[in-house]
Amino acid sequence: MCGIVGYVGVKNASKVLIEGLKRLEYRGYDSAGISVLLNGHLAISKTPGKVSRLEKMLPDAGSSVIGIGHTRWATHGEPNTVNAHPHTDCSGRIAIIHNGIIENYSALRTKLASMGHAFKSQTDTEVLAHLIEEFNKRFMNLEIAVRLALKEVDGTFGIVVMSESEPDVLVAARRGSPLVIGLGDSENLIASDASALIKHTREVIYLHDNEIAVITKEKVQLKNLEDEAVERETEHLTFDLEQIEKGGYAHFMLKEIHEQPDTVLNSMRGRLIDADGISMMGGLREVEEKIAKARRFVILACGTSWHAALVGKYIIEQYAKIPVEVDYASEFRYRNPVLLDGDIVWAISQSGETLDTLAALREAKKKGADAYGIVNVVGSTIARESDAGVYIHAGPEIGVASTKAFTSQLVVLNLINLYLARKRKSITLEQGKEIVEEMHRIPDKIRKIVENAGQVESIAEEFKESRNFLYLGRGVNFPVALEGALKLKEISYIHAEGYPAAEMKHGPIALIDENMPAVFIALRDSTYDKILSNIQEVRARKGNVIVIANEADDRLKELADHIIEVPTTLEALSPILSVIPLQLLSYYIAVKRGCNVDQPRNLAKSVTVE
Ligand code: G6P
Q1: How many angstroms does the Cα of residue 515 sit away from the middle of ligand 1?
Q2: What is the pLDDT of residue 61?
Q3: For 173-226, how does the pLDDT look when each residue is reduced to its tens digit (9 = 90+)?
Q4: Has residue 167 got a pLDDT over 60?
Q5: Which residue's CA is the nearest one to ligand 1's atom 4?
Q6: Does the annotation count 2 as an active-site position?
Q7: CB burial string 549-568: b at 16+ within 10 A, e below
């Protein structure tokens, strides 16, 4: 999704901005631009494509010490130079960068055009530049102009504005799109994501919704949009830059797949009480009783997080015996859902910023439900707005296709399940202990799977030209099939469908011929015998069968063209293992097809628009 960087200080602003934008590349974007103040005038450079292309076309701006930069992921208007940010007013003296969507932009544009404003782009953002121009003409003060302009706006924004008339000031504001301010020595920065600041400072202030910041090189002043001063504590960032760099792997995605023994361990660290066969999560302590007494869970999420939610449904219903409904956040928020007394809503989100999930969470709260978060990014909006929650502690995930966040989400769902099942006495102490012991073994089992990446790579070589894939599983393996298919289509652009294996005969079976690879997740679990028949059905129609199976499964060896083995574990934990070969398969197929694995076309890491 779009990225924002702003700088005011003593260094070469263009350089700082370009470096910052490069750190934000992982968010996904299709054009980039910067504006710096050069000899009293705004110098703006913009281009479709990558930041490296922008860098090559920059003027020599060594004397510039203030500026703003942006990577845009197109929503209104195609990704071209004109639509790239920054956008300017009529005079070209005010420049703005914006994340989010101005919903009433069309009405505002008509009004401003009738007042004589000339528009250059098709974007919603440009109306803000002209609105600010209007108020700046009247009040001759950028902060006031921004504040008054924002009062006329519906929608979401994270913006940074600069003006020739106030050459040492950046004005920023937020509603719905994250912004973090970095505090330096004779310099201050602002960005949509702390990774763009960390090279310069670890002291940060998070801007909250409906707040405005006036930033100079010496000072940062916060106010709300009602013009009242706001006090905010400075926070110290603890994560390292190396953590968000590739660490020797060819791509972030591969690095993140290989990190999973550690990230999964981090997700459970300190949360398992071996002797009592139960889990404990600090973020839920206050609401433990409520959760244990819940009559129903409603889990809301998008994308990969939604697949994690679906795994949660299978395991929580089976062990903790609480009915679970899983909904796409985007559907929940608009269908006037019925929430009853005793319902608890959970929002699962890696980024904690996905707009649909956030809006669904707010909708649930509006309806009076208790709403808890399962989030990766600390301090993100969903984390802050949830009544309680659990961080998954997977660390920064940079590859757009989610991998390590998914397995950590599964760990946390298992922790919640274990807690509930023990509290509600639907499993015994002995069963609880068995789960705890097995959870401790999971990191080593993952290690074994990633060590076998070479075998998956050779299977990828064989199937890299396939045009379609089917992923099939039953029970808890069904969401894994969905996730496997999503991974493949996201990064290799091969059409892939995940299906409950038994449903295959009601449609997808018509597609099977010698050109159709079918990937089965066929573990020795409660659905094993059934899925063997489904595999036979594909074989009978000459489909290519790739199976994710448990070690030493002789029956499957006769049926499958390829077997990728995973260690045995408890059924509730098995998705944490069985998904990993599927992540690797899609990774290698995408690499072999020459695709941009970490930044697939049209996708964004953090989707902060509807
Ligand atoms: C985007 C990403 C997906 C992710 C989804 C939900 O589409 O590309 O990888 O699963 O958003 O994101 P969240 O941050 O809420 O988990």
Answers
A1: 31
A2: 65
A3: 999 888 999 999 999 999 998 889 999 999 999 999 999 999 999 999 999 999
A4: yes
A5: 303
A6: yes
A7: bbeebeebeebbebbbbbbb
What are the Cα distances from residue 274, in Å, to 269, 320, 434, 441, 443? 12, 19, 9, 13, 17
Q: Is the predicted pLDDT of residue 1 greater than 70, yes or no?
A: no
Beta-carbon contacts of 26 under 8 Å, excluding residues fewer than 6 positions away, are 252, 398, 399, 400, 598, 599, 605
592 classed as catalytic: no
- Around Cβ 430, how many Cβ atoms within 10 Å? 9
Output the CA 277–ligand 1 centroid distance in Å.
33
Which mutation among 29, 328, 351 tests ligand 1's pocket best, with the greatest number of atoms within 8 A of CB? 351
Site to probe by mutation for ligand 1, drawn from 412, 606, 608, 610 as the one with most ligand atoms within 8 Å of Cβ, is 606
Alpha-carbon span 382 to 347, nearest angstrom: 8
Mapping DSSP to helix (H, G, I), strand (E, B) and coil, where does residue 312 land?
helix
Task: List, in sequence order, every residue forming a beta bridge with 546; answer none if it has no partner.
Answer: 519, 562
Q: Cα–Cα distances in Å, from 101 out to 76, 153, 208?
A: 9, 10, 17
Q: Which atom of ligand 1 is nearest to the CA of 304?
A: 10
Tokens of 271: 């949360």
- Integer Cα distance of 460 and 484 in angstroms: 14
**H-only helix segments in 177-296:** 252-258, 260-268, 288-292
Averaged over 383-405, what is the pLDDT?
92
**Number of H helices and number of E strands within the chain?**
19, 26
> In terms of Cα–Cα distance, which of 414, 369, 374 is closest to 394?
374
Quote the pTM value: 0.77
Give the residue ranges of DSSP H helices in 452-559: 453-463, 477-492, 528-539, 554-559
In terms of DSSP bridges, do strands 180-183 and 203-206 run parallel, antiparallel, or are they unpaired?
antiparallel
| Cα 497 to Cα 163: distance, rounded to the nearest angstrom | 50
Pocket of ligand 1 (CB under 6 A): 302-305, 349-351, 354, 357, 400-402, 603, 605-607
Closest ligand 1 atom, residue 377 Cα: 14
* Nearest ligand 1 atom to alpha carbon 351: 14
Please answer whether residues 129 and 109 qualify as being in contact, where contact means their C-beta atoms are separated by less than 8 angstroms.
no
Note whether 450 and 257 are within 8 A (CB).
yes
One-letter identity of residue 66? I
In the structure, what pLDDT confidence band is assigned to residue 247 with cuts at 50, 70 and 90?
A: low
By CB atoms closer than 10 A (0-12, 13-18, 19+), residue 152 is: middle
In sequence order, what DSSP letters do the residues of 88-117 get, joined into one string? Answer: E-TTS-EEEEEES-BTTHHHHHHHHHHTTP
pLDDT of residue 137: 96
Question: Rounded to whole angstroms, what are the CA distances from 364 to 299, 335, 400, 535?
Answer: 11, 12, 28, 41
Cα 430 to Cα 1, 103, 276, 414, 609, distances in angstroms? 47, 55, 9, 16, 47
- CA 34 to chain CA centroid, Å, is 25
pLDDT digits (tens, 9 = 90+) for 299-331: 999 999 999 999 999 999 999 999 999 999 999
CA of 593 from ligand 1 middle (Å) equals 23
